[in-house]
Amino acid sequence: MLSKRMEELEEVSKELLKVLLSDWADNLLHRSLDKRSRMDDKLLASQATAAQLVRELGAAEETVAKTLLDRESELQRLLRRLQDLEEELVRVREAGASLQANNSALRRELEELREESRRLEEDTEREEDTVPSTTYVTQLYYKISRIDWDYEAKPMQIKGIHYGPDIAQPIDIDGSRHSRCFISDYLWSLVPTAW
Q1: How far is it, in rounded angstroms, from Cα 88 to Cα 82?
Q2: 161: which residues sit within 8 A by CB, 6+ positions away?
Q3: Per the confidence metrics, is the pTM higher than 0.85?
Q4: Which strands form 157-163's sheet, in the order they lie side by side?
Q5: Residues 157, 175: contact at Cβ < 8 Å?
Q6: Per-residue pLDDT of the chain in tens (195 residues, 90 and over written 9)
Q7: 12 in Cβ contact with 35 (< 8 Å)
């Protein structure tokens, strides 16, 4: 656009020369000067418009550059977040693998405990078959000691009846006044030693 204006200016200058050389110089000179003045005004307006366009272009470039920097900053932030998430995923996978290994170990241990529990139950059943029942032990104890216990006696009160070889003898001992050793010795003294 500027070069076109320059061409027009050059043309005007040539015209001006022709006018100066011709008879109509005065009239042409005024017209040329008017034309030149209008062209100068147009040139100044074009320069002002061009300057305004340059300023607007600069502002637009600045806005675009700022937006680009903001987007670049956001991209960097998102890339860091992605990297953090990937690292966390690796840690979680490792923890998951560790938990899976622990879980497998706990399952094996649970199976071993179940097997041991099963063996213990079998051993207990075998022992129950070989160990005398409580009733048998109680009856055996009665045949040896010949004591009928009073199970309704107060705590720390030992009561019952001893059926000795000659006569039945009541037992009434305050357990809080005597030692366990004394009570045991006394009760064993009631058991006959002659078979």
Answers
A1: 10
A2: 147, 148, 150, 168, 169, 170, 171
A3: no
A4: 147-149, 157-163, 168-174
A5: yes
A6: 667 777 777 787 777 666 566 655 566 667 777 887 888 888 888 888 888 988 999 889 999 989 999 999 999 999 999 999 999 999 998 888 888 888 888 889 888 988 988 888 887 777 666 656 667 777 777 777 788 888 888 888 989 888 877 788 888 988 889 888 898 888 888 877 765
A7: yes
